[in-house]
Amino acid sequence: MGLYSRHIRTQAIVKHDDVEIIRRIDNLLSNTTISSNVYSFLSSIKFAFQKYNGLTTKQYSAFTKIEKSYIDVVQSSELNKQWNEDYANNKKEIAIICAEYYASNPPYYGDLSHRIIKDDNFIPTREQYESITTNKYALKVLHSHYATAKYKIGDLIMLRASCPEALKLRIGAIPCAIVKVNSSPIVSAAKGAKNYNILPLGKTHIITIEERWIKKAKNNC
User: Would 182 be classed as within a structural domain?
Assistant: First the structure.
């Protein structure tokens, strides 16, 4: 490679070397609500800054996007009191239901889901809330969660023929009693994904199962 080519390549690498960047990174690292993935990324670019005396444009751009998302949350908390109250009183439960779904189905909304579930004081922006709760998958999850349960505690049920083989191996044709409705967060966007805790008759181990995999036992009609 000639001297001119090396010069052009060197000039193409733009470094962001303001030492203030380290302080900004440390400020985010001290935030106890960030997810492990974000913490790992921030730690890696801090190391890169110290080793190479700056960040590349791509690294700096990724950092500022993360930083802005946290700054936006703080500003929202301070400037949008009405939204904060509306979220706390009417929308937080919906956000958690959707966040639980996405936490179980990565990678989408990973950091946002983590913050909604883990940080009780976190309030997403209106845009973040609408993004995670109004897409087609979230709407299916919400429909399953809030739909009237087909079965109640004490009902006897059987497995449907269409249920997964793993459940057939565990339960077989044994009737089961419903012991809890909406027993755990919905992790499937399929119709009938409401979860139940069931207890096979004569057994001692409770099993969690989705509504779509069960039907009323014949002697429970």
Answer: yes
How far is Cα 135 from Cα 77, in angstroms, rounded to an integer? Answer: 24
Extended strands (E) in 49-202:
55-56, 156-159, 176-181, 195-200
Tokens of 182: 């909406």
pTM for the full model? 0.63
Q: Measured between alpha carbons, how far is residue 203 from residues 39, 158, 174, 176, 207 in Å? A: 45, 14, 10, 9, 10
* Number of neighbours of residue 9 by Cβ within 10 angstroms: 10
Burial of 4 (0-12, 13-18, 19+ CB in 10 A): exposed
Which pairing describes strands 176-181 and 15-16: parallel, antiparallel, or unpaired?
unpaired
Task: Specify if 195 maps to a domain.
Answer: yes
Q: How far is CA 116 from the centre of its chain?
A: 8
For 170-181, the pLDDT digits (tens) are 999 999 999 999
18-52 tens-digit pLDDT: 889 999 999 889 888 788 889 999 999 999 999 99
The answer to whether position 151 is within a domain reads: no
Pairing outcome for strands 55-56 and 15-16: antiparallel
Q: Which residue among 99, 114, 143 closes a domain?
A: 143
Does a cis peptide bond (omega within 30 degrees of 0) precede residue 200? no
The residue segments making up the domain with residue 62 are: 3-143
